Amino acid sequence: QSETRPAAPGLLGLMQRSFACLLEQSRSRSSDLALSASYLEIYNEQVRDLLSPGPPCALPLRWSKTRGFYVENQLSVDFESLEAIADLLLQGSQRRRTSAHALNRHSSRSHALLTIHVRSRAVSVHPALGTACPSKQGTLCFVDLAGSERVKETGSSGELSVEANNINRSLLALGHCISLLAKPRGKRTHIPYRDSKLTRLLARSLGGSGITLMVACISPSSHCLSETLSTLHYASRARRVTTRP
């Protein structure tokens, strides 16, 4: 998208098209849908709010029987237009932790989760009797996973090496959960969602009642063959996971 004019519809990405579809549905339903967004990153096993003003600080990750795993005190911002949610996405992305190493000048050092909260407002059925249809809610979560790293190839050291180790550990925990979930339901053992902050926040997406889509990004370069094969194996396991929407 250029700075002077919006991109043509055919050039919009997956997230922008999803935002546009949600907003169109909201308008067609006479505005009985309320949309809001929250944007988090997992940096060195700390959950940080990318929309909250001020310096980033770690937020507690809780669990309850009714909500499952959730982030306490995260900021959720209402939006009613494509421009508004695009601004929130840009604002959060600019605050996300990035650094340069030998292979990438703008390497993501964290996993990012943008969640769109969709709520249907309660509608009065018999105003005189004070009765109303209960409100409903759902979420649409976009997750950008930081890529796994081989420290020998990236030349990372010091803080970069610590970040890479935390990224690799969380991806390993996610891969382990995916491998167990890919087994037939009768042969599954305990799913260790608590092994990382990433797997806790993705527990509902992976093993709940939602529909999950994984986009695997690979390189055509022969130099990256081992990483490409590893990514494809990762995605292949994810395809075998079945949920109950």
**Strand portion:** 15-25%
**H/E series:** HEEEEEEHEEEEEEHHHHH
Distance between the termini: 34 Å
Number of strands: 12
Spatial shape: globular
Number of helices: 7
Helix fraction by DSSP (H/I, runs of at least 4):
25-40%
What is the CA-based Rg, rounded? 20 Å
List its salient traits.
245 residues; alpha+beta; 6-stranded antiparallel β-sheet; two-stranded antiparallel sheet; 7 helices; 12 strands; 33% helix; 23% strand; globular; disordered N terminus
Give structural notes.
- The protein is an alpha+beta fold and 245 residues long.
- The chain has helices spanning 14-28, 82-95, 151-154, 159-181, 197-201, 203-207, 225-239, and strands at residues 33-43, 46-49, 58-59, 61-64, 68-71, 77-78, 98-99, 107-108, 111-120, 123-126, 131-133, 136-144.
- Strands 1, 2, 3, 6, 9 and 12 form a six-stranded antiparallel beta sheet that branches. Strands 4-5 form a two-stranded antiparallel ribbon.
- Strand 4 (61-64) and strand 5 form a beta hairpin.
- The longest helix has 23 residues, at 159-181.
- The chain is globular, with a radius of gyration of 20 Å.
Give a brief rundown of this model:
The protein has helices at 14-28, 82-95, 151-154, 159-181, 197-201, 203-207, 225-239, and strands at 33-43, 46-49, 58-59, 61-64, 68-71, 77-78, 98-99, 107-108, 111-120, 123-126, 131-133, 136-144.
